[in-house]
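User: Please predict the structure of the protein below. I'd like the answer in structure-token form so I can feed it into my own downstream comparison script.

Assistant: Understood. Taking the following sequence of 370 residues as input:
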Amino acid sequence: MATAPRPRTTTRDPEELGRRLTTWLTARLPGAKAANVTVPESNGMSSETLLFDIEHPEPPLTACALRLAADPAAYTVFPVYDMPRQYRTMRLVAERTDIPVPRVLWLEEDPAPLGAPFFVMERVEGRVPPDVMPYTYEGNWLHAASDQERERLEAASVGLLARLHDQVPLPEADFLTLPGEGSPLRRHVEAQRSYYAWVIDGLSCSPLIESAFDRLDELWPSDEGEAVLSWGDARIGNVVYDGFAPAAVLDWEMAALAPREVDLGWTVYLHRFFQDLTASFGQRGLPDFLRRDRVERRYAELTGHTPRDMDFHTLYAALRHAIVMLRVAYRQVHFGEVAVPPDPDTLILHHGSLRAMVQGSYWEGPAAGR
């Protein structure tokens, strides 16, 4: 289900990282050793994850996960990896909400020990809806679940967003204010414009992405709504589930202050991305799961806030995803995995659905998820 070989996710040697991690760990827990160091198959192309156990005569814990900033020499997906910001966000969410987040243990800002800053957290056991192959594709636990079980998972997952947005005191999340001028939404979109400019620096631009930015201006909400702590990467693939209940919420590197609908649009669209991809390969997928109308209704029931301007926010989610995918594609070009096609827009796997959103036709029809 890919148009090119799966991109490499790391240029680091896990064995070497394990040796260096043990040296670092021993300085904090004398006699401790990092054992069973592994890189999970689901390791992303942004911050990297290491799983390890602590061996110690009297261990305060044994199972850990480490989030390591991307190797700056490896054509990173994002220009900046602010590990202290992620660490602080997870602590805030843990302290001020009832959302399950792994307990963070140590923050290391010095790049010397492992080559980049990192933090360590407790490892939470459970299962995660897979990205490769996507959970919408046959052959995984979520696809094999009953409609009632997926209903429980969907309701609990929307509930995470509702509680996050309602429970975090905004003044305490002020450190997540994005730079620039104007409203939180204006700053959020301008940050994406800056990111896009960084992605195409010295390379071919994407007319499709630029037309999507223009369409955002046309659809701009007349009332942007209040800002909340936005998770940023709000999708079920970033949640560890115990059965069908959330056990740990992961990946906070895109957290920021933004309207509620930024997370809702991302949740809806990232599922649709997988669903559209699955349908394009002749499978039914999960068309009744995480439908836009149901997500909006559930969220309104839980918060009293009726989501608005969702055409804008789902387009914005597809646009944000397109910029990431363009960067990933140019990373593949950098490593010689693919060649640049005559039309750079085709490097964006969901260019068809993004174009339909720009044209205003994507959400038309009874099967479109309204």
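That's the full token string. Residues 1-8 have pLDDT under 50 and may be disordered.
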